[in-house]
Design brief:
It is built from 5 helices and 7 strands, in the order H-H-E-E-E-E-H-H-E-E-E-H. By secondary structure, it is an alpha+beta fold. The strands form 2 sheets. It has a 4-stranded mixed β-sheet. A 3-stranded antiparallel β-sheet has the order 3-4-5.
Length: 134
């Protein structure tokens, strides 16, 4: 996969990555950048290694009890450890502008596990959900 210049340049991660929409290679919504995974280089500079998304990544950014409740609820409902949020390797990023564009399909980054759980266990249990109205 070729890497455009705008993916390797220095950037202000807070303003250019956090809370940006993530789109796959077909322009479909993947999620939002809720947090970042960083690695420190030998020269002391930080490098983004992954985009973190979903309630498990957003919760720690929220202050007070609201953040804690978000992470605990997500962890309990998803069956994942509180620190096991959805991670998209930065190598999947193809470009950054008003959104973060991936060079891969939405299905290859496996971000919809919690959404699938909610759809199958909560939404499907509602009377009339998924049924033909005729």
């Amino acid at each position: 996969m070729s890497t455009p210049d705008n993916r390797r340049r220095e950037l202000d991660a807070h303003h250019q990555l956090l809370d940006r929409q993530i789109l796959d290679n077909d322009g479909r919504m993947v999620g939002k950048v809720d947090d970042l995974e960083l690695e420190e280089r030998e020269d002391g500079r930080l490098v983004v290694t992954a985009l973190l998304t979903g309630p498990g990544a957003l919760g720690p950014r929220l202050t007070g009890a609201w953040g804690s409740i978000t992470v605990r609820t997500w962890s309990r409902l998803s069956g994942r450890a509180p620190d096991d949020c959805t991670r998209i390797g930065y190598s999947a990023v193809s470009s950054i502008n008003t959104a973060v564009h991936l060079g891969v399909s939405r299905s290859s980054v496996a971000v919809d596990g919690f959404e699938t759980w909610v759809r199958t266990r909560l939404i499907a249990a509602l009377p009339g959900a998924g049924k033909d109205p005729s």
